[in-house]
């Protein structure tokens, strides 16, 4: 299960920070994976004890490597190979965004009218209809 040399992109994919290895490599090339504030290349060798700052699509991570994992496993097993050191304020920002965007409800007075509002509008518009139009 453990290897002597392991690339950072493969490690981030295996601990489930990114869905695909190519996304992990792309994040490295864009400078979204850093060690001590310095961007790293996808080919960097991971060592136990390294701390990485990662900006993924969903959230920001600060991860300390506690074990080397070279293949993708279940999340419940993957969490044993790193320690999440992400500051609480970054986690709170993610939770507040999730609460605002994933409610599934339309915000009041934004977007298309509801059926009830449309009926009210139609009734209002019929009052102002021209003389030749029939009203029911």
Automatic annotation (TrEMBL):
Compositional bias annotation for Basic residues: 106-116
Gene Ontology MF: a single term: single-stranded RNA binding
Keywords: DNA-binding, RNA-binding
Record family assignment: Belongs to the HSP15 family.
Coiled coil stretches, renumbered: none
Region (Disordered): 98-136
Keyword RNA-binding among UniProt keywords: yes
UniProt-recorded name of the protein: RNA-binding S4 domain-containing protein
UniProt organism field: Filimonas effusa
Cited SMART domains: S4
GO biological process: cellular response to heat
Compositional bias per record (Acidic residues), positions renumbered to this chain: 123-136
